[in-house]
C-alpha cells in the first residue's frame, strides 16, 4: 500500500487519559508544536486543571487494566468488551500505521475482504458515510459502515445494512481484536483505542459478509488508522481549520493530510463547498497519484434533507455511489433522500419552543448551523445551550451562533475535556458583548432554562459537542 507524502512512520507519542470520541493518527504537523490530543473532539487531560475527573461510565465497576482477552471458546459480556476498549485510552500513543497493519494481519486482513469507500473531511463525515450506506443498501448492496464518534453506545460506530451491530457481534469482534492485540502490543507501545475500534469494525463487517465497506476516517487521513484501505472511491466532504495542532495551520496543509488516503486509480469526490485552496491541493494530489476527480453538484432533490449542509453532504454521497456503482436509480435516490435522518444533525427534539439539536463543535460547523437556521426561518433571537471542549475555538463557535442567538446558557456536558461553563460564559461576553450568558451546570436544567427563556414562539439550539447531545437527546426526544 502506498502512503503519498508520508515522510516516515515513526509517529509521535502522546500521553493522555479520558474517554475517546474519535481517535486517529496524523500528520506532518506533528512535532512543530506540542500536541495534546487526537480524535474528532480531542482530549484534554483528566480533571481540567483544578476541576474533577470525568463521570464514571457504565463499565466503571470493571477494572479494565486487569481484563485479559477471553480464551478461545469463552465469551466476554458486552460491558467487559467495552471496558477492554476503555482501557486502551489510558496509555500513551505513537501515531503511525504499523500497529494497525500488524493487528489486521493477525486478524486475517478483514479490511481487504471487499472494496471500500473512504470518507474524509473536517465536517460532514458521519452524515455522508451513512448516506452512502443508505444509497448502497437501497440499490441492493449489503453495506457495512464504520463511524465515529457515537452518541450513546459503542455499537453505534459499526452498522450493517443501516443498523448498529448487535451485542453478540460487538463482543465477538472485540474479543478477536483483544486476542490479536496480545501478539501486537509492545512494552510502552500498545494498540491504541481507535486502532482497536477500527479493527473490530473490519472484523464485524467481514463476519457479516458485507459486500462493501463505507469507512469514516477518524482525524486527518495520512496516518489515520483507517488508511489501510486503498479505497477505489474517496470522499472529501469539507476542509476547515480544526485540529491545527495536529494537521497544520492552513487549509492547504490540512487538505494534504486528508487527501493523502487517495491512491492510484481511485476516484476522489470533492464536496461542493470546498474552498479554492482545498480544491487546488486535492486536485494536485490526485494528479500526482493518477486518481480521477469528480465534484459533487447539489441538485433540487437534495433539498429533501432539510438543513443546507445535509443537502451538500447528500450530493457528495450521490456522487460517491455513482462513481462506485456506475449509475443510480433516481426514484430510489429520491426515496432515500426523503427518508434519511441523522441524530443530532439539525434534529428537532421539541416544539413550543422549537428545540434543535446539532453536533456543531467547531466554527465551520457552527456557521453551517447558523445558515441552516436562517434557511429554516429562524433569523434572530434564539437561545443557545452550549458546552465546548477546551481545545476548540470557542470564540469562533460563539461568533457564528451570534448571527441567530442573543442568549446563551452554558452547561457542563460531563466530559473531562469540556471548558468550565463559567469560562465559556466569559468567552460569550467577550465575543458578543451584548449577549446574555447564564451558567446552569446540569445539561437538562440548562435546556429547561433555555426553553423558558425562549418562550413558546421562540427557538432553542443545543450544540458545541456530541457529548452534550448525548446528555440531552434521550430524555428530550419525546418532548411535546
The largest sheet is: 8 strands, mixed
Helix content: 25-40%
Q: Any idea of the CATH class of the largest domain?
A: Alpha Beta
What's the architecture of the largest domain, going by CATH? 3-Layer(aba) Sandwich
Key words describing this protein structure:
single chain, 480 residues, alpha/beta, UDP-N-acetylmuramoyl-L-alanine:D-glutamate ligase, Protein-Tyrosine Phosphatase, Chain A, eight-stranded mixed β-sheet, six-stranded mixed β-sheet, 15 helices, 36% helix, disordered N terminus, disordered C terminus
Layout of helices and strands:
Elements: E1 13-15, H1 78-87, E2 92-94, H2 98-106, E3 116-120, H3 125-138, E4 143-146, E5 158-160, E6 163-164, H4 167-181, H5 193-207, E7 212-216, E8 233-236, H6 244-247, H7 251-259, E9 267-270, H8 276-289, E10 292-295, H9 308-325, H10 330-339, E11 347-350, E12 354-357, H11 363-375, E13 382-386, H12 394-401, E14 405-410, H13 421-431, E15 436-439, H14 443-454, E16 459-463, H15 466-476
Parallel strand pairs: 3-7, 3-8, 4-7, 8-9, 9-10, 12-16, 13-14, 13-16, 14-15
Antiparallel strand pairs: 1-2, 4-5, 5-6, 11-12
Helix pairs in contact: 1-4, 2-5, 3-9, 3-10, 4-5, 7-8, 11-12, 12-13
Description:
It is a single chain. This protein has helices at about 80-85, 100-105, 125-140, 165-180, 195-205, 245, 250-260, 275-290, 310-325, 330-340, 365-375, 395-400, 420-430, 445-455, 465-475, and strands spanning about 15, 90-95, 115-120, 145, 160, 165, 210-215, 235, 265-270, 290-295, 345-350, 355, 380-385, 405-410, 435-440, 460-465. The protein is of the alpha/beta class and about 475 residues long. The protein is globular and about 60 Å long. The model is unreliable at about 1-65 and about 475-480 (pLDDT under 50).
